[in-house]
Structure formats: structure tokens, C-alpha cells
Write a structure and sequence with these properties.
Shape: elongated
Pfam families: Ribosomal_L28 (PF00830)
GO cellular component, one term: cytosolic large ribosomal subunit
Protein name: Large ribosomal subunit protein bL28
Strand content: 35-45%
Radius of gyration: 17 Å
CATH class of one domain: Mainly Beta
Largest sheet: 2 strands, antiparallel
Oligomer: single chain
Family: Belongs to the bacterial ribosomal protein bL28 family.
Order of helices and strands: EEEEHH
GO biological process, one term: translation
Number of strands: 4
Length: 72
């Protein structure tokens, strides 16, 4: 929903050796009740995405996802 993806960086050891690593977003499956459709919708959203849904409302977010052609 928020478009988050893995970020890349380095693991740095005590000896200052650097190896590549990935920072993964905090994605969770969550069921949201959609009052207008009288059903639950299961979305895989980040923790920040849940805050966005709380702020803007699930109906607004779902309409934007449908406009982008996202499947859920």
C-alpha cells in the first residue's frame, strides 16, 4: 500500500569488514472491516500503512488501491 520495499546497506563487523545486507519493511497481514461492503479485506501492510489506514479510512485507501489495479 505504501510502496515500501527492501532497502540495502552494510553489515559492519567489529573489525570494520562490510558485507551487503537488506533491511526489510515491517510487513504484516491484517484484516480490515469494510463497512460499505460488509466484509473483511485482508491486506499485507507495513506498520506505517496501518497508521495511514487509521488516519485516512479504509474506504479511501481501498479506492486508491483499486485505481492502481492492485489485487487484494
Amino acid at each position: 500500500m505504501t510502496g515500501k520495499g527492501p532497502a540495502v546497506g552494510n553489515n559492519i563487523s567489529h573489525a570494520n569488514n562490510k558485507t551487503r545486507r537488506r533491511f526489510l519493511p515491517n510487513l504484516q497481514y491484517h484484516r480490515f472491516w469494510v463497512e460499505s461492503e460488509k466484509r473483511f479485506v485482508r491486506l499485507r501492510v507495513s506498520a506505517k500503512g496501518m497508521r495511514v489506514i487509521d488516519k485516512r479510512g479504509i474506504d479511501v485507501v481501498l479506492s486508491e488501491l483499486r485505481a492502481r489495479g492492485e489485487k487484494f
